[in-house]
Specification:
Blueprint: E1 2-6, H1 16-26, E2 30-35, H2 47-51, E3 58-59, E4 62-66, H3 76-97, E5 105-110, H4 117-127, E6 131-135, H5 141-145, H6 152-166, E7 171-174, H7 179-185, E8 193-195, E9 222-227, H8 236-245, E10 252-257, H9 263-272, E11 279-283, H10 290-294, E12 299-303, H11 316-324, E13 328-331, H12 335-343, E14 346-349, H13 354-365, H14 369-386, H15 389-409
Parallel strand pairs: 1-2, 1-5, 2-4, 5-6, 6-7, 7-8, 9-10, 9-12, 10-11, 12-13, 13-14
Antiparallel strand pairs: 3-4
Helix pairs in contact: 3-4, 8-13, 11-14
């Protein structure tokens, strides 16, 4: 198949779409990726890209077509400009750069924003090719949850945009079972929606990683690790509350690996609250190095704010945590919390409950290593059963082939 991937984010940014593209190429498909300039999560275009853009024009055999856009930087205005500039540039400049290129099917990756659906809808019309749209973030509800938009009229406008985009999809994929109903409420009657969760990246299958030198060894100290984006949705105020409650526990430390729009604030709060001896911010590192950081962890922390929309979400990092075979501390509501609890893969407390998080950290720290290992093994087993990478990618490939065959019977694809 000739697959066109539309994604605002792509390598060297760390997203599962990278692995998906590489797998499709290995399976013999011709893949082109339409994307923007790498600037997530810190908000500035990566220096290595600026130094040599040509180096990033191909990924694992896939052609990468990039369009100009405004970096995220800091502040809500910049974020809005980032979203809109990619949508506009990809719709016009992207369509021009892809002129004459035959496409069998379009795959759109939507972790946020929904506006990535504008260029993909445009290209669906131009290329006369079916579109598969993978929803990993629900709009407009997420805008309310992170405080970006509050005005009712604007949310209604975004809701109409979501309906317009969903109506131009041939198949919509929902990252959690709880997403299905929400997606259906914005979709036209009869829209096809399938449950399609994320998988754990293959890098996390490794069980013999050498501990990262950036983090000092601490024998006898229980290490809680957070890895990923440091943003509004992850509820760092509640995490810091838990850390402060356990400030006197010299046998518990916290490692934060990652970066994001809220990272400067978190760093300031650590200093202001006198938590520097308990918390290490290790910064952002490539995905392939994450197992070496995980090697220091006795427990991995996943959290989302106490908002109704986040209770429908399976956090993207959860599958990777489970695959690593390390117990999970989940400050979550809803489907993500249910997965951890039912698998007995860790401990769960309510979203936004800093006191509850402090409690489950102490409970897990008190367990003997064999009990913690059993939790980690439970998580790895669940991941192999429910979120197996090769199975998921093959399922998706089958859906794409069905759509291409159906479109071929109706008259073929375009250029």
């Amino acid at each position: 198949m000739r697959i066109l991937v539309v994604s605002q984010y792509f390598w060297p940014e760390n997203f599962r779409v990278n692995e998906l593209v590489a797998e499709w190429v290995r399976h013999g498909h011709q893949v082109t990726v339409l994307t923007g300039l790498p600037n997530y999560p810190a908000g500035d275009v990566f220096p290595q890209y600026r130094a040599d853009p040509g180096r990033y024009a191909e990924y694992e055999g896939a052609r990468v077509v990039r369009v100009a856009m405004t970096p995220r930087r800091q502040g809500k205005l910049w974020l809005v400009l980032n979203y809109l500039s990619f949508a506009f540039s990809a719709s016009l400049l992207g369509a021009w750069k892809l002129r004459g290129e035959a496409v069998d099917v379009i795959f759109t990756f939507e972790p946020s924003p929904i506006t990535v659906g504008l260029p993909s809808a445009c290209l669906r019309w131009l290329k006369r090719a079916p579109q598969v749209f993978w929803v990993l973030d629900l709009w407009p509800e997420t805008l309310v949850a992170v405080g970006v938009v509050r005005a009712r009229w604007m949310l209604d406008l975004v809701g109409r945009l979501v309906h317009w985009i969903y109506a131009r999809c041939d198949l919509i994929l929902a990252q959690s079972k709880s997403f299905v109903g929400n997606i259906a409420s914005y979709s036209p009657p009869g829209q096809r929606v399938e449950y399609f969760p994320a998988w754990a990246e293959s890098i996390f299958d490794a069980q013999d990683a050498v501990p990262a030198a950036e983090v000092g060894a601490a024998p006898g100290v229980f290490t809680v690790m957070f890895a990923g984006n440091i943003g509004e949705a992850q509820d760092f105020p509640s995490i810091l509350d838990a850390i402060e409650r356990l400030k006197a526990r010299q046998d518990i430390r916290w490692i934060i690996v990652g970066d994001g729009r809220l990272a400067p604030w978190v760093s300031q709060q650590i200093e202001a609250r006198g938590l520097g001896e308990r918390v290490t911010m290790a910064g952002r590192h490539p995905l392939e190095r994450m197992p070496s950081f995980f090697a220091h962890a006795d427990a991995l922390l996943v959290s989302l704010r106490d908002e109704p929309i986040f209770s429908l979400t399976i956090p993207g990092k959860l599958q990777s945590y489970l695959a690593a075979g390390i117990p999970v501390l989940a400050m979550l509501n809803g489907e993500g919390a249910q997965i951890v609890a039912e698998a007995v893969a860790g401990y769960v407390c309510r979203a936004g409950d800093g006191a509850g998080l402090a409690d489950i950290v102490e409970r897990m720290a008190a367990l003997d290593p064999a009990a913690r290992k059993a939790m980690g093994d439970n998580g790895r087993r669940l991941c192999a059963q429910e979120f197996q990478r090769e199975h998921q990618i093959r399922r998706l490939e089958g859906w794409l082939e069905e759509l291409v065959a159906a479109r071929g019977r109706r008259g073929g694809c375009g250029r």
